[in-house]
Amino acid sequence: MKSSRPRRGYKANQTQRPSNLFLFFTFLCPSYNLTMQNWTIQKLLNWVTEYLTNKGVDSPRLSAELLLSHVMGLKRIELYTQFDKSVSKQQLDKLHDLVERAGDSEPIAYLTGKTEFYSLELEVNPDCMIPRPETELLVERAIEFLRTRTGTQFVCDLCTGCGCIAVAIAKNVPVARIIATDISAAVLDIAAQNIEKYSLKEKITLLCGDLFDPLVPQLDVEKLVLDSDRGFDLIICNPPYITAAEFESLNKNIKAYEPRIALYAGEDGLDIYRRLIEKVDEFLKPDAALMLEIGYAQGPAVKELLEQNGTFTEIKIEKDFRNNDRIAIAKKMSLLK
After folding, report:
1. Which CATH number fits the domain 115-332, given the four candidates 3.30.110.30, 3.40.50.150, 2.40.50.150, 2.60.120.260?
2. pLDDT at 10 over 60
3. CA-wise closest residue to 194 among 183, 212, 180
4. Backbone angles phi, psi at 176, to 5 degrees
5. Class for domain 10-104, per CATH?
6. Which end of the chain is more exposed for a tag (fewer CB within 10 A), N or C?
7. Can you give the pTM of this predicted structure?
Protein backbone atom coordinates (compact mmCIF):
# COMPACT_ATOMS: atom_id res chain seq x y z
CA MET A 1 0.00 0.00 0.00
CA LYS A 2 1.33 3.43 -0.90
CA SER A 3 2.01 5.79 1.97
CA SER A 4 0.51 9.30 1.95
CA ARG A 5 3.51 10.59 3.89
CA PRO A 6 5.65 13.01 1.85
CA ARG A 7 8.97 11.58 0.76
CA ARG A 8 12.12 12.78 2.47
CA GLY A 9 13.64 15.70 0.62
CA TYR A 10 10.47 16.37 -1.37
CA LYS A 11 10.58 20.14 -0.92
CA ALA A 12 14.24 20.33 -1.84
CA ASN A 13 13.57 18.45 -5.06
CA GLN A 14 10.66 20.76 -5.86
CA THR A 15 12.84 23.84 -5.67
CA GLN A 16 15.35 22.34 -8.10
CA ARG A 17 12.80 21.60 -10.85
CA PRO A 18 11.58 24.81 -12.52
CA SER A 19 8.23 25.04 -14.23
CA ASN A 20 8.05 25.13 -18.00
CA LEU A 21 7.03 28.79 -17.86
CA PHE A 22 9.99 29.64 -15.65
CA LEU A 23 12.34 27.71 -17.93
CA PHE A 24 11.04 29.61 -20.94
CA PHE A 25 11.44 33.07 -19.43
CA THR A 26 14.75 32.39 -17.73
CA PHE A 27 16.60 30.57 -20.47
CA LEU A 28 14.85 30.02 -23.78
CA CYS A 29 13.19 33.43 -24.17
CA PRO A 30 15.58 35.61 -26.21
CA SER A 31 14.27 38.82 -24.64
CA TYR A 32 15.21 37.76 -21.13
CA ASN A 33 18.29 39.51 -19.70
CA LEU A 34 20.67 36.58 -19.21
CA THR A 35 23.06 38.68 -17.18
CA MET A 36 20.46 38.76 -14.40
CA GLN A 37 21.06 35.08 -13.74
CA ASN A 38 24.16 33.33 -12.45
CA TRP A 39 23.99 30.30 -14.73
CA THR A 40 25.95 27.38 -13.36
CA ILE A 41 26.48 23.98 -14.93
CA GLN A 42 24.15 22.39 -12.37
CA LYS A 43 21.31 24.82 -13.11
CA LEU A 44 21.68 24.37 -16.85
CA LEU A 45 21.79 20.58 -16.66
CA ASN A 46 18.57 20.50 -14.67
CA TRP A 47 16.73 23.01 -16.82
CA VAL A 48 17.83 21.71 -20.20
CA THR A 49 16.95 18.17 -19.11
CA GLU A 50 13.46 19.37 -18.18
CA TYR A 51 13.02 21.17 -21.48
CA LEU A 52 14.14 18.18 -23.57
CA THR A 53 11.95 15.86 -21.49
CA ASN A 54 8.90 17.97 -22.27
CA LYS A 55 9.84 17.99 -25.95
CA GLY A 56 9.95 14.19 -26.01
CA VAL A 57 13.66 13.95 -26.79
CA ASP A 58 15.17 10.50 -26.15
CA SER A 59 17.50 10.25 -23.14
CA PRO A 60 17.01 13.89 -22.13
CA ARG A 61 19.58 13.90 -19.33
CA LEU A 62 22.26 12.35 -21.52
CA SER A 63 21.37 14.75 -24.32
CA ALA A 64 21.68 17.70 -21.94
CA GLU A 65 25.08 16.46 -20.79
CA LEU A 66 26.33 16.02 -24.34
CA LEU A 67 25.19 19.48 -25.43
CA LEU A 68 26.58 21.24 -22.37
CA SER A 69 29.90 19.39 -22.42
CA HIS A 70 30.22 20.29 -26.12
CA VAL A 71 29.56 23.97 -25.47
CA MET A 72 31.82 24.08 -22.40
CA GLY A 73 34.63 22.05 -23.94
CA LEU A 74 34.48 19.61 -21.03
CA LYS A 75 34.15 15.86 -20.68
CA ARG A 76 30.80 14.68 -19.35
CA ILE A 77 32.34 13.60 -16.05
CA GLU A 78 33.86 17.07 -15.67
CA LEU A 79 30.39 18.62 -15.65
CA TYR A 80 29.79 16.91 -12.31
CA THR A 81 33.13 17.90 -10.83
CA GLN A 82 32.48 21.53 -11.78
CA PHE A 83 28.78 21.82 -10.87
CA ASP A 84 29.12 25.38 -9.56
CA LYS A 85 31.12 26.70 -12.51
CA SER A 86 29.49 29.74 -14.11
CA VAL A 87 28.66 29.65 -17.82
CA SER A 88 29.53 32.68 -19.95
CA LYS A 89 27.05 34.70 -22.02
CA GLN A 90 28.71 33.47 -25.22
CA GLN A 91 28.36 29.85 -24.13
CA LEU A 92 24.75 30.43 -23.12
CA ASP A 93 23.92 31.86 -26.54
CA LYS A 94 25.45 28.84 -28.25
CA LEU A 95 23.69 26.42 -25.94
CA HIS A 96 20.37 28.25 -26.46
CA ASP A 97 20.54 27.59 -30.20
CA LEU A 98 21.52 23.94 -29.81
CA VAL A 99 18.80 23.23 -27.24
CA GLU A 100 16.10 24.71 -29.46
CA ARG A 101 17.29 22.59 -32.38
CA ALA A 102 17.41 19.48 -30.19
CA GLY A 103 13.87 20.23 -29.08
CA ASP A 104 12.87 20.20 -32.75
CA SER A 105 14.23 16.61 -33.03
CA GLU A 106 17.59 17.42 -34.66
CA PRO A 107 19.94 14.58 -33.61
CA ILE A 108 22.37 15.41 -30.81
CA ALA A 109 25.22 13.80 -32.76
CA TYR A 110 24.77 16.30 -35.60
CA LEU A 111 24.57 19.20 -33.15
CA THR A 112 27.85 18.23 -31.48
CA GLY A 113 29.50 16.80 -34.60
CA LYS A 114 30.49 13.57 -32.91
CA THR A 115 29.20 10.27 -31.58
CA GLU A 116 30.53 7.21 -29.79
CA PHE A 117 30.80 3.83 -31.47
CA TYR A 118 32.62 0.75 -30.17
CA SER A 119 34.30 2.93 -27.49
CA LEU A 120 35.59 5.30 -30.18
CA GLU A 121 34.65 8.96 -30.56
CA LEU A 122 33.86 9.55 -34.23
CA GLU A 123 33.17 12.65 -36.27
CA VAL A 124 29.76 12.79 -37.96
CA ASN A 125 27.68 15.35 -39.87
CA PRO A 126 24.35 15.34 -41.76
CA ASP A 127 26.06 13.86 -44.86
CA CYS A 128 26.38 10.50 -43.09
CA MET A 129 24.12 8.25 -41.08
CA ILE A 130 24.75 8.18 -37.34
CA PRO A 131 26.25 4.81 -36.26
CA ARG A 132 23.92 2.72 -34.09
CA PRO A 133 24.84 0.55 -31.09
CA GLU A 134 23.28 -2.46 -32.88
CA THR A 135 26.04 -2.28 -35.51
CA GLU A 136 28.61 -3.03 -32.81
CA LEU A 137 27.48 -6.67 -32.94
CA LEU A 138 28.54 -6.79 -36.60
CA VAL A 139 31.96 -5.41 -35.64
CA GLU A 140 32.32 -7.91 -32.81
CA ARG A 141 31.66 -10.86 -35.12
CA ALA A 142 34.10 -9.48 -37.70
CA ILE A 143 36.87 -9.09 -35.12
CA GLU A 144 36.23 -12.59 -33.76
CA PHE A 145 36.43 -14.07 -37.27
CA LEU A 146 39.61 -12.24 -38.24
CA ARG A 147 41.37 -13.23 -35.02
CA THR A 148 40.89 -16.92 -35.83
CA ARG A 149 42.96 -16.54 -38.99
CA THR A 150 46.68 -16.15 -39.55
CA GLY A 151 48.64 -13.64 -41.57
CA THR A 152 47.51 -10.32 -42.98
CA GLN A 153 43.72 -10.17 -43.27
CA PHE A 154 42.24 -8.22 -46.18
CA VAL A 155 38.84 -6.67 -45.54
CA CYS A 156 36.38 -4.80 -47.75
CA ASP A 157 33.92 -2.50 -45.98
CA LEU A 158 31.11 -1.53 -48.35
CA CYS A 159 28.85 1.47 -47.65
CA THR A 160 31.39 2.62 -45.07
CA GLY A 161 29.65 5.88 -44.19
CA CYS A 162 31.64 7.71 -41.52
CA GLY A 163 34.05 4.75 -41.48
CA CYS A 164 32.87 3.42 -38.12
CA ILE A 165 33.18 -0.28 -39.03
CA ALA A 166 36.53 0.08 -40.81
CA VAL A 167 38.04 2.16 -38.00
CA ALA A 168 36.79 -0.19 -35.26
CA ILE A 169 38.18 -3.27 -37.05
CA ALA A 170 41.51 -1.60 -37.84
CA LYS A 171 41.92 -0.50 -34.21
CA ASN A 172 41.23 -3.99 -32.87
CA VAL A 173 42.85 -6.24 -35.48
CA PRO A 174 46.48 -5.19 -36.08
CA VAL A 175 46.87 -7.48 -39.12
CA ALA A 176 43.79 -6.11 -40.92
CA ARG A 177 44.18 -4.13 -44.14
CA ILE A 178 40.94 -2.53 -45.28
CA ILE A 179 39.45 -1.06 -48.44
CA ALA A 180 36.35 0.98 -47.58
CA THR A 181 33.97 2.19 -50.29
CA ASP A 182 31.02 4.56 -50.37
CA ILE A 183 28.98 6.14 -53.14
CA SER A 184 29.22 9.61 -51.52
CA ALA A 185 32.40 11.67 -51.73
CA ALA A 186 31.11 13.93 -48.94
CA VAL A 187 30.70 10.92 -46.66
CA LEU A 188 34.22 9.73 -47.43
CA ASP A 189 35.53 13.12 -46.28
CA ILE A 190 34.08 12.34 -42.86
CA ALA A 191 35.53 8.81 -42.94
CA ALA A 192 38.93 10.28 -43.81
CA GLN A 193 38.76 12.52 -40.73
CA ASN A 194 38.06 9.52 -38.50
CA ILE A 195 40.86 7.51 -40.09
CA GLU A 196 43.26 10.41 -39.57
CA LYS A 197 42.08 10.88 -35.99
CA TYR A 198 43.18 7.36 -35.09
CA SER A 199 46.30 7.31 -37.31
CA LEU A 200 44.99 4.52 -39.54
CA LYS A 201 45.88 5.86 -43.00
CA GLU A 202 48.35 3.02 -43.52
CA LYS A 203 45.66 0.41 -42.78
CA ILE A 204 42.54 1.81 -44.47
CA THR A 205 42.13 2.86 -48.11
CA LEU A 206 39.03 4.83 -49.15
CA LEU A 207 37.49 4.47 -52.62
CA CYS A 208 34.46 6.34 -53.96
CA GLY A 209 31.84 4.42 -55.89
CA ASP A 210 28.78 2.19 -55.73
CA LEU A 211 29.45 -1.07 -53.86
CA PHE A 212 32.08 -3.04 -55.80
CA ASP A 213 32.37 -0.56 -58.69
CA PRO A 214 35.64 0.98 -57.40
CA LEU A 215 37.15 -2.49 -57.20
CA VAL A 216 38.20 -3.81 -60.59
CA PRO A 217 38.52 -7.61 -60.26
CA GLN A 218 42.15 -8.76 -60.23
CA LEU A 219 43.37 -5.15 -60.39
CA ASP A 220 42.78 -3.09 -57.26
CA VAL A 221 42.05 -6.21 -55.21
CA GLU A 222 45.14 -8.00 -56.49
CA LYS A 223 47.33 -5.02 -55.67
CA LEU A 224 45.98 -5.05 -52.14
CA VAL A 225 46.05 -8.77 -51.48
CA LEU A 226 49.25 -9.71 -53.31
CA ASP A 227 48.70 -13.44 -53.18
CA SER A 228 47.48 -16.15 -55.52
CA ASP A 229 43.98 -16.38 -54.07
CA ARG A 230 43.04 -12.86 -55.18
CA GLY A 231 40.27 -11.67 -52.94
CA PHE A 232 39.24 -10.57 -49.50
CA ASP A 233 39.22 -12.59 -46.31
CA LEU A 234 36.14 -10.67 -45.19
CA ILE A 235 33.57 -8.48 -46.90
CA ILE A 236 31.43 -6.54 -44.47
CA CYS A 237 28.56 -4.14 -45.09
CA ASN A 238 25.91 -2.17 -43.24
CA PRO A 239 23.84 -1.09 -46.24
CA PRO A 240 20.59 0.86 -46.52
CA TYR A 241 17.76 -1.59 -45.73
CA ILE A 242 14.68 0.44 -44.79
CA THR A 243 11.53 -0.53 -46.70
CA ALA A 244 9.16 1.98 -48.28
CA ALA A 245 6.55 1.49 -45.54
CA GLU A 246 9.15 1.74 -42.77
CA PHE A 247 10.63 4.91 -44.24
CA GLU A 248 7.28 6.69 -44.15
CA SER A 249 6.83 5.83 -40.47
CA LEU A 250 10.33 6.78 -39.28
CA ASN A 251 10.64 9.20 -36.40
CA LYS A 252 11.25 12.82 -37.32
CA ASN A 253 14.78 12.82 -35.86
CA ILE A 254 15.70 10.20 -38.48
CA LYS A 255 13.49 10.95 -41.48
CA ALA A 256 13.98 14.72 -41.47
CA TYR A 257 17.71 14.79 -40.73
CA GLU A 258 19.59 11.63 -41.72
CA PRO A 259 20.42 11.11 -45.43
CA ARG A 260 17.74 9.14 -47.27
CA ILE A 261 20.36 7.45 -49.46
CA ALA A 262 21.81 5.80 -46.34
CA LEU A 263 18.43 4.47 -45.21
CA TYR A 264 16.02 3.63 -48.02
CA ALA A 265 16.50 0.46 -50.08
CA GLY A 266 13.40 0.00 -52.22
CA GLU A 267 9.94 -1.37 -51.62
CA ASP A 268 11.09 -4.40 -49.62
CA GLY A 269 14.39 -3.00 -48.35
CA LEU A 270 16.42 -5.65 -50.19
CA ASP A 271 17.70 -3.70 -53.21
CA ILE A 272 21.30 -3.40 -52.00
CA TYR A 273 21.48 -7.00 -50.79
CA ARG A 274 20.43 -8.30 -54.22
CA ARG A 275 23.12 -6.32 -56.06
CA LEU A 276 25.81 -7.07 -53.50
CA ILE A 277 25.19 -10.82 -53.25
CA GLU A 278 25.05 -11.13 -57.04
CA LYS A 279 28.70 -10.02 -57.37
CA VAL A 280 30.27 -10.93 -54.04
CA ASP A 281 31.78 -14.25 -55.19
CA GLU A 282 34.22 -12.40 -57.49
CA PHE A 283 35.81 -10.67 -54.52
CA LEU A 284 35.92 -13.34 -51.80
CA LYS A 285 38.75 -15.80 -51.23
CA PRO A 286 37.85 -19.44 -50.60
CA ASP A 287 37.00 -19.95 -46.93
CA ALA A 288 36.33 -16.21 -46.55
CA ALA A 289 33.24 -14.63 -44.99
CA LEU A 290 30.53 -12.16 -45.89
CA MET A 291 28.93 -10.28 -42.98
CA LEU A 292 25.87 -8.06 -43.41
CA GLU A 293 23.77 -5.98 -41.09
CA ILE A 294 20.09 -6.61 -41.82
CA GLY A 295 16.68 -5.23 -40.83
CA TYR A 296 14.78 -6.48 -37.79
CA ALA A 297 12.71 -9.01 -39.80
CA GLN A 298 14.84 -9.54 -42.92
CA GLY A 299 16.62 -12.70 -41.81
CA PRO A 300 14.61 -15.20 -43.87
CA ALA A 301 14.70 -13.07 -47.06
CA VAL A 302 18.44 -12.36 -46.86
CA LYS A 303 19.19 -16.00 -46.07
CA GLU A 304 17.23 -17.06 -49.14
CA LEU A 305 19.23 -14.66 -51.34
CA LEU A 306 22.48 -16.09 -49.98
CA GLU A 307 21.32 -19.67 -50.52
CA GLN A 308 20.27 -18.94 -54.10
CA ASN A 309 23.73 -17.57 -54.82
CA GLY A 310 25.26 -21.02 -54.31
CA THR A 311 28.61 -19.66 -53.10
CA PHE A 312 28.30 -20.35 -49.40
CA THR A 313 28.49 -23.51 -47.32
CA GLU A 314 27.37 -21.98 -44.04
CA ILE A 315 24.77 -19.25 -43.56
CA LYS A 316 23.74 -17.91 -40.16
CA ILE A 317 21.26 -15.23 -39.07
CA GLU A 318 21.98 -13.73 -35.66
CA LYS A 319 19.66 -11.65 -33.51
CA ASP A 320 20.59 -8.57 -31.49
CA PHE A 321 20.01 -7.80 -27.81
CA ARG A 322 16.38 -6.89 -28.60
CA ASN A 323 15.84 -10.30 -30.24
CA ASN A 324 15.55 -8.76 -33.72
CA ASP A 325 17.28 -10.12 -36.81
CA ARG A 326 20.50 -8.12 -37.02
CA ILE A 327 23.36 -9.78 -38.92
CA ALA A 328 23.81 -12.39 -41.63
CA ILE A 329 27.07 -14.32 -41.74
CA ALA A 330 27.93 -16.49 -44.75
CA LYS A 331 31.12 -18.55 -45.18
CA LYS A 332 32.40 -19.24 -48.69
CA MET A 333 33.32 -22.75 -49.81
CA SER A 334 36.89 -23.86 -49.24
CA LEU A 335 39.02 -25.12 -52.12
CA LEU A 336 39.30 -28.41 -50.22
CA LYS A 337 35.56 -29.03 -50.47
Report:
1. 3.40.50.150
2. no
3. 180
4. -80, 140
5. mainly alpha
6. N
7. 0.84
